[in-house]
Design a protein that fits this description.
Methanol Dehydrogenase, Chain A; 7% helix; 6 helices; mainly beta; binds calcium ion
Length: 623
């Protein structure tokens, strides 16, 4: 029996329609929880709720990675700062955020732009409130929404298909010196996001909103406020005993600008907090009071319930911080065997040079060792993990002390990654970060401005716009003897950045390679026994994950402002995508001008046997 033609056409049309409208997979709690299983998408900032940046994909592997080539490249926008963001991928579409909170959706196969949303930030009004660059670290996805942090303190949820705003919430105001640069995260249907700006007078916090509606759920301050007002919660009451009575008037700090992770089984969100402000502890206590207060919960990891924001445990890496040792670096969750026992751990390669391994259910300190040279402390207390700070690190105004690491940190926001097959963590490390710290004895609080409270001898960058501090930095200063350094052997002079493959169980380096560190780039790792690394100077490199053999390298010509690499699979092909280039960087009062050879920002995607030549661009000049 013959099938009538029109039935055949009907069937064929139905199939075509089905193909064209491939069943759209929405992002829900289960999808996120299982994010590590298929590797097809990149659903959340750190790839999965444990933020491992490990992909189970192995189409690109140690044997064929040298065949990687450019599939496509696309222009992001005119720029304005580094590309620090991790793009997300779902249903074959890449979602990314670039300078001034511009969000784009791009076809992963072709690089063709699907939509673009510019929230039209009032750049002139907001720019002076941005402490640390017109940058973004990423987006969140939930349901059919892409959730974008706008640098001026708004949170916007955009329809994944059209880019239209579905809801908007207000997290913070730039008038209060807050900016928003971190990637929001999702836990139990809530979107959680914190604020940047602890170099300005701010009281750090993070907030939760209903991811479907944008309705405010809860807010957790990381440092106490005005003690004449009621405490927000028991945690704040406790914290208030670790600060001097008037410290809150200077802001306090404790901003939340990068590290966050979620363990659905433990029912905990983990949040890293920034430095106390102003930087020197001397400036945070009254005339008749002494140093030695811990200043909770600055420079800490906090574990809170996603439903309520209730604090379950905390671990403070740097009590009484004086060195800008933000503890917001990536929080990475893994299950490892320590001394024969399976442990659910939370790990961090802290700015301060120590690699921390904590029990993520209880907050108990397991171990901590220097992964880079440091001299501010002699080590960590083996039981408690509290640093044994060198007396000379408590700097004053009588002379400068060269301390390692400096405010840039031994590891900053550049993402590390953990490969369960090798058991190694791949950390972009700054080997020679240091600063001559000198207390600004004539410090005057400046409302609404940068309040570092240190003089940086020979540098123009202390407290931008403070002419008196800039003059003081030009004067000759006595250099005091720095304390002795501890930690792994430094690389030869000239190799400032290194990629360190760290064994978190033995707390020892397994291998190292040249390049990395500072701010920019980062790593991801795969079941193909690979580590992908983007180096801040614009190179994209691949290493064998187990032994560090360099297998592939390409110069992108983006020349700086690099973001980390992601990998995913569309239509059976594994891709690697990265962003970089700064474009025109606006000059900031008191700071040197932006880079002179800046490249226009681009997104680039690599694939096996990709044949497109690397585009070469003329430098763009600062406006
Ligand atoms: Ca800081």
């Amino acid at each position: 029996m013959r099938t009538p033609l029109r039935v055949l056409i009907g069937i064929s049309l139905a199939i075509t329609t089905l193909t064209a409208q491939a069943p759209k997979r929405l992002v829900d709690d289960a999808t996120l929880r299982n994010a590590r299983q298929s590797g097809e998408d990149w659903l959340t900032y750190g790839h999965d709720p444990g933020e491992t940046r490990f992909s189970p994909l192995s189409q690109i592997d140690a044997a064929n990675v040298n065949r990687l080539g450019l599939a496509w490249s696309m222009d992001l926008n005119s720029g304005g700062g580094n590309q620090e963001a991790t793009p997300l991928v779902r249903n074959g579409v890449i979602y990314a955020i670039t300078n001034w909170s511009v969000v784009i959706a791009v076809d992963a196969r072709t690089g063709k732009e699907k939509w673009r949303w510019d929230p039209e930030v009032n750049q002139d009004a907001v720019f002076p409130k941005i402490c640390c660059g017109v940058v973004h670290r990423g987006l969140a996805m939930y349901g059919n929404l892409v959730i974008a942090p706008i640098i001026d303190g708004r949170l916007q949820a955009l329809d994944m298909d059209s880019g239209k705003v579905v809801w908007e919430a207000r997290v913070a105001y730039p008038q209060d010196n807050y900016t928003m640069t971190m990637a929001p995260r999702i836990a139990k249907g809530k979107v959680i996001v914190g604020v940047s700006g602890a170099e300005y007078p701010v009281r750090g916090f993070f907030s939760a909103f209903d991811a479907a509606t944008g309705h405010f759920a809860w807010k957790f301050y990381t440092v106490p406020g005005d003690p004449s007002k009621p405490f927000e919660n028991a945690a704040m009451k406790k914290a208030s005993t670790t600060w001097d009575a008037d410290a809150w008037k200077l802001g306090g700090g404790g901003s939340v600008w990068d590290g966050m992770a979620y363990d659905p089984d433990a029912d905990l969100i983990y949040v890293g907090t920034g430095n106390a402000g102003p930087w020197p502890e001397d400036l945070r206590h009254g005339k008749n009071e002494k140093n030695g207060k811990d200043n909770l919960y600055a420079c800490s990891v906090l574990a809170v319930r996603p439903d309520t924001g209730e604090l379950k445990w905390y671990f403070q890496m740097v009590p009484g911080d004086s060195w800008d040792y933000d503890s917001v670096q990536q929080l990475l969750l893994a299950d490892v065997t320590v001394k024969g026992k399976p442990r659910k751990v939370l790990m961090q390669a802290n700015k301060n040079g120590f690699y921390y391994v904590l029990d993520r259910v209880t907050g108990q300190f397991i171990s901590g060792q220097p992964f880079s040279q440091l001299n501010w402390a002699r080590g960590l207390n083996e039981e408690t993990g509290r640093p044994i700070v060198n007396q000379a690190a408590h700097y004053g105004s009588e002379g400068s002390v060269a301390l390692t690491p400096g405010p840039g940190g031994a590891h900053n926001w550049s993402p590390m990654s953990f490969n369960p097959a090798t058991g190694l963590v791949y950390i972009p490390t700054s080997a020679f970060s240091s600063l001559d710290y000198l207390l600004d004895e004539n410090f005057v609080y400046k409302p609404g401005k940068s309040n570092l409270g240190v003089i940086m001898p020979g540098r123009p960058t202390a407290d931008a716009g403070d002419a008196r501090a800039a003059e003081a930095a030009k004067k000759p200063v006595t250099k005091l003897t720095p304390p002795p350094s501890i930690g792994p052997e430094p690389p030869p002079p000239g190799q400032r950045g290194i990629l360190v493959a760290w064994d978190p169980v033995t707390q020892k380096e397994k291998w190292r390679a040249t390049g990395g560190g500072s701010i920019g780039g980062g790593t991801s790792t795969t079941a193909g026994n690979l580590v992908f690394q983007v180096v801040p100077d614009g190179r994209f490199v691949a290493y064998r994950a187990d032994n560090g053999e360099r297998l592939f390298e390409v110069k992108t010509d983006l020349r700086g402002g690099m973001g980390p690499p992601i990998t995913y699979m569309v239509d059976g092909k594994q891709y690697v995508t990265l962003m970089g280039g700064t474009g025109k960087v606006r000059a900031r009062e008191g700071y040197p001008p932006g880079p002179s050879n800046a490249a226009p920002p681009k997104m680039m995607t690599f694939v096996l046997d990709g044949k497109m030549p690397i585009p070469v661009s003329a430098p763009v000049s600062a406006p």
